[in-house]
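ingest -> validate -> predict -> emit
validate: passed (alphabet ok, no gaps, 192 aa)
predict: started
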Amino acid sequence: MTQSAESALTVRAVATDAITKAFQDAVCGPAHLGSPEVIWSEGGAQILLHAAKLRAIIQGNVLIVAVDTESAEFGVAPLIVRFVFGSEQEPAFLVAATDETALGHPQVAARWGDLFRDVIWAAFARLAQVSAAGKTPAGLRLSPAGLELTTHEPVPVVQAAREHVDDLIRRGLRQAPARRQSVAPSGSEEPA
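emit:
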């Protein structure tokens, strides 16, 4: 990254309440925005999600999202997913580790956990994109107050590639390209 790009970094904050609201809207879907409850159906199975009770909790660099579910078979049972992001020293962007399976009631998590995790992750990615407000996301950190999204002005791809190659050359990781010599087109005579 060039010196000018580094100085153009800006930080945007997204409060935990806004993150929670984005996740609540995501589990409800566009047809049921703001509903306190929503029923998910898939393959003949159904489960009620208490969307109004969904919570996003930040603990260090871990984002925990929990919702109460309800079914005739299992009663009220929690469904929980966790995303672990980069550290304070190494911010991440849209890269997170997560559990192989969702947490909560084992059978509810086995049946609905992957879908819940995918919906929450898609909502998180969309929230980061919208919060970047047309700028290029450069990193994110979780804090007790919410999400801190670092952005910078977009860089054209060709410019980014040139800067990358120049950086490799400066650090001695790549040789500078050989200078090209002009060659006269065939059939033309060069002046003497």
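Helices lie at 3-7, 16-28, 106-131, 157-170.
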